[in-house]
Design goal:
Helices cover 26% and strands 33% of the residues. The protein is of the alpha+beta class. The strands form two sheets. The protein has a six-stranded mixed sheet with strand order 1-8-7-6-3-4, sandwiched between helices. Strands 2-5 form a two-stranded antiparallel ribbon. Strand 7 and strand 8 form a beta hairpin. The longest helix has 15 residues. It starts with a helix and ends with a helix.
Length: 151
C-alpha cells in the first residue's frame, strides 16, 4: 500500500534501469494496483494447471536472454496461464510452455520496456527443483546480464 514505493518502482524502470519479474511477480497480486500488471508485466496470471512436468519451447533463440538455453526442454514447475492485458504494454515472447491437456501455449519468458528501462518476465521458478534446472539457471543469468548491460 506504500504509494511512494510503488512510484519509485516505476521511476526506477522509466529512468533506464532493468527489472526482473520472476514467478509470483507476474501473478495478478494487487487488485488496488492494476498499473503494475498492465504497464510493467503486460498482463498476468490467475491460474495454472497442477504442478507437474511440461515442455518449454524457445521461440527466439538468438535473443541474448535465451543464449545457451536448449531450444526445447522439459521442467517440473507451475505453468502459469499468462494472459496479455489488452491495454497492457507490448512484450516480446522468448519462450512458451505447453499445457498438454489443452494444447494451449503460454509465455514463460518475455521482454518488455517501460520508459528507458528493460523488463524480463519469467513465469517459471515455483520451487527448488525448478531453481536447480540448468535452463532456468541460464535464463536467470542471461536476464541479469541483459538487464544490467550498458549501451
Amino acid at each position: 500500500p506504500d504509494t511512494d514505493l510503488r512510484d519509485a518502482i516505476f521511476e526506477f524502470v522509466e529512468a533506464g534501469n532493468g527489472l526482473l519479474l520472476v514467478h509470483p511477480a507476474v501473478w495478478y497480486n494487487w487488485e488496488d494496483w492494476p498499473e503494475f500488471n498492465r504497464e510493467l508485466v503486460g498482463g498476468g496470471s490467475r491460474s495454472h494447471p497442477p504442478y507437474g512436468e511440461f515442455g518449454v519451447s524457445v521461440t527466439e533463440p538468438d535473443h541474448p536472454v535465451m543464449a545457451g538455453v536448449p531450444v526445447q526442454f522439459t521442467i517440473k514447475d507451475e505453468l502459469y496461464r499468462f494472459e496479455k492485458d489488452p491495454e497492457g504494454t507490448d512484450f516480446h515472447v522468448l519462450a512458451t510452455g505447453l499445457e498438454e491437456e489443452t494444447g494451449a501455449e503460454y509465455p514463460v519468458v518475455w521482454t518488455a520496456g517501460y520508459g528507458q528501462g528493460r523488463i524480463v518476465g519469467i513465469t517459471l521458478g515455483h520451487d527448488g527443483e525448478a531453481h536447480q534446472h540448468p535452463a532456468y539457471i541460464k535464463v536467470l543469468q542471461n536476464s541479469i546480464e541483459w538487464l544490467t548491460e550498458t549501451e
